[in-house]
Amino acid sequence: MLNDDELKNAANASESSDSENVSNATGEALEKCKTERAEYLAGWQRAQADYANLERESARERDAEAERARIKIFRQIAEVLDGFERAFSDKESWNSAPESWRSGMTGIYEKTRAIFREHGVEEISPAKGDAFDPTLHDSMMIENTADQAKDGLISETMQKGYRINGRVVRPASVKIFSHTPESPSSP
Amino acid sequence: MKILGIDLGTTNSAMAIVEGGQPKIIENTEGNRTTPSIAALAKNKERLVGLTAKRQAVTNPENTIFGVKRLIGHRYDDPGVQKDKGSLPFKISQGGDSGVLVAMGGKDYRPEEISAMILQKLKTDAEAKLGEKITEAIITVPAYFNDAQRKATKDAGKIAGFDVKRIINEPTAAALAYGFNSKKNEQIAVYDFGGGTFDVSVLEVGDDVIEVKSTDGDSHMGGEDIDRDIIKWIGDEYKKESGIDVTKDALALQRLKEAAEKAKHELSTTSESEINIPFITSDATGPKHLLLKLSRAKLEEIARPYIDRSIEITKRAVKESSFDMKDIDEVILVGGQTRMPAIVDAVRALFGKEPNKSINPDEVVAVGAAIQAGIMQGDVKDVLLLDVIPLSFGIETMGGVATKLIEKNTTIPASRSQIFSTASDNQTQVEIHVVQGERPMSSDNKSLGRFVLDGIPPAPRGMPQVEVSFDIDANGILSVKAKDKATGKEQSIKIQASSGLSDADIERMKREAEENADADSKKKELIEAKNLAEQLIYTAEKSMRELAEKLPEDVKKGVQEKIDALKKIKDAATDVAVLKSETEALSLEMQKMGKAMAENQANPPKSEPEKAGAENVRDAEFEEKKEDGDEKK
Hints:
Oligomer: heterodimer
Strand content of chain A: 15-25%
Radius of gyration of chain A: 36 Å
Low-confidence stretches of chain B: 380-384, 604-621, 623-633
Largest sheet of chain A: 3 strands, antiparallel
Largest sheet of chain B: 6 strands, mixed
Shape of chain A: elongated
């Protein structure tokens, strides 16, 4: 904004007979006004843009927060599924349980898995010989092999992983083949 | 152009920027707020950094490099390097300039090149997240880093493609995050218990400079040690119980690790955590389950040696700084481990003051680096200073309740509007009483002004829609407007909001609101119960009138009795419970009306909703301005 002195100068100049002075002073005042106007307009536009950006950003943040919360819950449910799978994997103990108990337990397990399917949660369960991908798999241990071709490939999925919309809820825990030449003298 | 603030940690790294004057942590592409400081060359020759590098570590230990911060800028023959050498799964050797070389994938790298890989990932991820090129950074280092270590860190930044604007101390960044740089002549202690390291520094804030007076620590003590001891405790307890050592099984060990971490987190807020891993293993006798309880006391016992050691080191650092414990004005907690209540207690007891811990301790250093960046960019300087209103603005509604339209701490200029309605049938005017303050009852707040909006066409209560708009301009001048939506008629008032209230008044009003919070909420609850009772009486009487012909006498009598009973106690009621139960009794009795109608008629007439066509009408209603009668303006 113009201060009082500047206004006075402009006014004084207009009273003087020198028309050049008048136009100089008013011209300067006008220039200053223009600069200020541009500055304020830019500031106002920036504020508008900041607000629009903030709104978009907070909408994104909200979605991301909701997704994080869902993933957290899915991770916890996955632990329940792990418990079932560990129970099933001990074949001898599992088969010695009464048939009606087994079918009931399987029912509860399937029902829990159905929740995952309903929400678009997919299993990550690589097969033996699949390539190891650290974006989906977490290596737990190695299994020695004499077959060099198998080196670095997955030998076993020890615990399933899960993903939703391409985002990993939890990586699959896997065992990896590692080539160890049988004879220490081999090249 | 944004400058990225980077906390390049031993175990994890984090990054932040300043946006709109506010620091903000940037997530990496995996969606995490911190990135493991690990780089690897995978078996397929792919370079991995962060979480993916960590996940393949087991299968590829000799090519997975972690903790390189302990090597950067060191000479190979430094005692610390020689001591670490034996325990590292990857190979290190001496370089031509007697520095350290790290072997990865059959090639030797300088530690700064490994750090550069981590920085490069942060850079790429930040660019992807922010959608713009990032070329400038501020990187933090421990206060004890010497010139060689600082230079090497700066070089790492250069290799990663950054123009490193500055290398700043981690404790200084923490102090900046809390805004302590502006407090002159203060002594600040920064206690940083991270995943793998412990550092403590004493800072002095002078004229625009934060000086490190002393620093101490243990580069091999951190939260991971506590985790390892918890896992050991779980394993030992389970072995005692079952005779089985589950820690030998890699997958079971992984489960114990997760369980230990989870228990540790839970015990920051609860006093006991259950570790429950069914079917953890099996033997000849069948499946085995792990079910243990870890108490906070036990956890603290496990962590005690580490906490005690950190406190000893802290005492040493303060002594070294030549200050007394009592000279320390502020204490800042940094590092995830400081979430443990026992650590907070120990630090509080040592300094005799509450430590600062409101900023996420995993992120506070990166936030501080971003703030330093903001200061350099002048981001903060050019921001227009916006005011906030210290007290809420609202209007008085039915029963003398103050209904807030603009909440305190709202940034101005601001405007809000809300639709209200009438409290009685055929009410033709409403009085807008503008109040300021936090108390629920308008009489306890400051009255700013009142005006009347008349000429509302007669209608049943709750039907007219009066829109009340508040607008506060940048100078704090409040304009209040009331508009009848049906006729378009409006009235307004302009109030110099700031006039009459001094800072002391504002403080007093805030204090009073806090002091009276309990009593006020009870009072408000009673008013609301009264309003509800009144509304129900109104609805009941209306239905009785409309359905007079169709209702059986006994039902009518029952409802009338309940109406009378409620009316009798309503105005003088002081007990919310009694009022609520009488209201509930009337409501139950009214259900009989509906039931009777359903029984009597094949097609029961639809009872008219009380607020038909007024979905947006708020429950709070205006009190009729009786004293003004029918006077028109």
